[in-house]
Amino acid sequence: MTIKLKSTLAVLALSTALTACSSGGNEPAASSGSGETASGSGTEAAATNQAGSAGGDFKKLGDEPLKLTLYSTGATFTDVEFEAMIAGPIHAKYPNVTIERITPAATTTPEEVLSTHVPDIIFGSVQQRVIRTGVYQDLRDLIKKHNFDLSRLKPVGINYITEITKGEGDAILALPFNINQHIMYYNKDIFDKFGVPYPTEKQLTWDEAIELGTQLTRTENGVNYVGLVVDNLTGLSKSLGLPYLDRETGQAALDTPEWLRVFETAKKLYEIPGYVTPDGTWDWTRDHFMKDQNIAMRVAWLANMVGPLEELRQQGVEFNWDIAPAPNFEDQLGKTREAQIHSIAINSQSPHQDEAFQVIAEILSDDGQRIIAKNGRVPAIINPELEKDYGADIPVLQGKTVQNVFIGEPLQEHYIHPYESEISKHLKTAAEDLAVGGLDVNSAIRKATDAINKDVETLKTTIGQ
């Protein structure tokens, strides 16, 4: 496969990945922060929490300056987080090594990025279609060369990566950077306003959460307050780890008792009086929680909210919020939602593959992962002690009930079919049909199934499988 063809395919695949973490409507995949580190994090934290010895030995690189580039796609990863978790710590320990982020304009497509850059390191989510482009380097030889111990990685992370690469000669095309889990964010000011007790460390059922949300959904002084937001059908489906498409046939996988349960729960939520506003607004997003501050509870990824909330704090916008465990169905209590795996990989065209792997190994050392934990991400390695450090260096998490992050077992992410992002729009349409379109649950499932299967037939000829 030629490099030009690889780049063309990569564009299609990486555009698929761009929505992986944007779980709130039209939210950006990564916000464009100032690049300055938060107080007590980033370079300052790295100076006092230098990466451990599990990484490579940079001494053999000499004193010559080395610049590596990183491209982030398909995951919320702010400039502040990049500096605090990767660029700052690496440069603090190895002053001759600089990692620069490729940050194209918001309107720039992955095709344009990849046609003008060869990033050494790729941060994002591993998906089947990305694998097929040839962008990722098989890491097995580098793992062996640097004696990297895969058993240190959490199974929920590395198992997902190896599962999705089955059929690719058992290649290891990425390593988990962090485990992106779900929690429930809640606005304490809204609870106080309406005299409703806060959620606790007790994991609620969806019925209990909807009942609580009903108490907080009302209009006052012209403001529409919404009690509970769950990122619609796709968010609820993650409670059960449901695939959108059949892995073998590529056909819609919605006609199951589990998906029926998801549709019924979403319908119940949309039918709360006041959830849908008189002007038809129904799709409540991250910005409604963070900026408009009219959402009482929002269940979402950690990475989707913590970094942006810290950026908002640095801009002088703060409010009284906290976190609770993500609700689930009654027979699934003790589990949360699917854990999305944010991965870190090496470009197959990079001229610095050996050095890039040493950086990755350093990031995945105990001390490197401690920096990540302190800056608000759940580590990818097995080390319960790191949970005690969670959020310690990110000001926006100070005083929050961070222990609730670790209540409940995250599910392994479902197999992401190559067509998934192309057909996910039909789940958004199905949610709209339930909320404002007047469709019943069974009709919405049939309509979405027919639309998905029609698209799949086209995708089989344009993308292949």
From TrEMBL:
InterPro entries: Bact_solute-bd_prot1, SBP. Residues 21-56 are annotated as: Disordered. Keywords: Signal, Sugar transport, Transport. The keyword DNA-binding does not apply. One of its GO terms (cellular component) is cell envelope. PROSITE patterns: PROKAR_LIPOPROTEIN. Residues 21-48 have a biased composition (Low complexity). It comes from the Bacteria. SUPFAM superfamilies: Periplasmic binding protein-like II. PANTHER family: ARABINOSE-BINDING PROTEIN-RELATED, SN-GLYCEROL-3-PHOSPHATE-BINDING PERIPLASMIC PROTEIN UGPB. This is Multiple sugar transport system substrate-binding protein. It comes from Paenibacillus phyllosphaerae.
